[in-house]
Amino acid sequence: MSELIKNKRFSKKLILNIKLMLLLGLVLFLFTSSSVRNGSRFLITNEVKFQNPEQPLISEETVNNLLILNNGSVKNIRKDALDLNSIEFVLDTNPYIRDVNVYVSVNGEVGVDVLQKRPLARVQTNESFYIDEEGEMMPTSTNFSVRVPLVTGDVTKNNLSDVFKIVKSIHADPFFKKEIVGVVVSKNKYTLLLREFDFLIDFGTSENIVLKLNNFKAFYKKAMKDKTIKIYNSVNLQIASQVICTKK
Fold this sequence. Notes:
Blueprint (H helix, E strand, L loop, with lengths): L1 H38 L6 E5 L9 H12 L12 H9 L4 E8 L5 E7 L2 E6 L3 E5 L4 E3 L10 E4 L6 H13 L1 H6 E7 L2 E6 L5 E5 L4 H18 L5 E5 L7 E4 L1
Parallel strand pairs: 1-3, 4-7, 7-8, 10-11
Antiparallel strand pairs: 2-3, 4-5, 5-6, 8-9, 9-10, 11-12
Helix pairs in contact: 2-3
C-alpha cells in the first residue's frame, strides 16, 4: 500500500515537472519569436529633440541629413541592422553638438536627443568664431546668431584660455551677462564695453576677476543711486583694491 502511494506521488511530480518544462519551452519560443520579428521590422521614422532649443545653432534638417548620409533613409533599414554607436559617433563630430543620444523605440521609431554647445562669446578678428562653455573654438552658425559679447583685438590661440576666463566670469554673473556687450583685448589687458552707458571699463589683466567685477558692481550701485553714472568717461579696475573713475 505504501509503495503504491509512493508511485502515485512520483507520477504527480513527474507530470508537474513535464508541465513546467513545456511551459518554459513555450515562453522561450514566444520570446525568441517575438525578438526575431521585432528585429526584422523596418524602421518607421525618426524624431529629433533638442535639449536646449533656445539657441538653434544646428537645425533638425541638418541632423536628419547626417542620419541619411550615414545610413541612407531610416525607412530602408531593419531595426536589428541599425548601428546606434556609429550614428552617435557621426553626430558627435558635428561642431555644434555637445552630446547626443540615439535610441529606437519598440515600434521602430528612431529618436535623437541633441545637446548643443553653448557659446559664451563671439570673436571677431581675422576670422570669426564662438568661444564655447568649455573654452573651445566653435564656428559661427548660418542657422542662428547667438547674442553674446563680441570680443575684438589681440585674440589668438595662445591667449584664448585667458580670454575664456574673462568671458566665462561675465557669463556666470547675471548683471554682467546682461550689461557687457563687448570685450577689447590689447596685450593681454581687457577693456569692457557696456550696453547702457558709453564709458569704458579698463579691466586690466585677468587676475582677480571676481574681485574686480564686485568692485565695479559696488561703484555702479552707488553711482546709480547718486545719479552720477553718466558723468564718467572711464572706470579703471586695474588695481584690484581700487576703482578709479575719470570724468568726461
